[in-house]
């Protein structure tokens, strides 16, 4: 599975888990039965570090609270922040670009600019 596809699958799982009591393994299998280490790491890592990620995002958001964000943008931001902060094999700029593409596909044009602005604070430290 290509990384772009893995990110899209991970987004679907994380979004689904944010709205249900489904088990993580069940949710992952619901999206795809294909086994992929990157996909699994994105899902499980984002969930494992969610409190830390949310606290970090809350500091970076200007005039927004995390709970006010649309759910898709919040999920994309969480996943991208996990990848930027906890993986070393993908440059931050690539992660931001992938997050923008996901936002364009699942959100709207303004959302992609917002996601870009927030994530740029992580790679321009």
UniProtKB/TrEMBL annotation:
Function: Involved in transcription antitermination. Required for transcription of ribosomal RNA (rRNA) genes. Binds specifically to the boxA antiterminator sequence of the ribosomal RNA (rrn) operons.
Protein name: Transcription antitermination protein NusB
Keywords: RNA-binding, Transcription, Transcription antitermination, Transcription regulation
Similarity field: Belongs to the NusB family.
Superkingdom as given in the UniProt entry: Bacteria
GO CC term, one of those recorded: cytosol
Cross-referenced Gene3D superfamilies: NusB-like
PANTHER family, alphabetized: ANTITERMINATION NUSB DOMAIN-CONTAINING PROTEIN, N UTILIZATION SUBSTANCE PROTEIN B-RELATED
Transmembrane stretches, start-end: none
Biological processes annotated in GO: DNA-templated transcription termination; transcription antitermination
One GO MF term attached to the UniProt entry: RNA binding
Record domain NusB/RsmB/TIM44: where: 4-123
Pfam family name, one: NusB
């Amino acid at each position: 599975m290509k990384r772009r596809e893995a990110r899209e699958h991970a987004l679907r799982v994380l979004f689904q888990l944010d709205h249900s009591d489904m088990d993580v393994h069940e949710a992952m299998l619901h999206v795809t039965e294909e086994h992929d280490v990157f996909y699994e790491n994105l899902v499980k890592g984002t969930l494992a570090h969610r409190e830390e990620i949310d606290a970090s995002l809350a500091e970076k958001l200007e005039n927004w609270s995390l709970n006010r964000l649309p759910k898709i943008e919040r999920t994309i931001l969480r996943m991208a922040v996990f990848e930027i902060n906890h993986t070393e094999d993908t440059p931050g700029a690539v992660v931001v670009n992938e997050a923008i593409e996901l936002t364009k596909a699942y959100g709207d044009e303004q959302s992609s600019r917002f996601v870009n602005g927030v994530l740029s604070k992580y790679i321009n430290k």
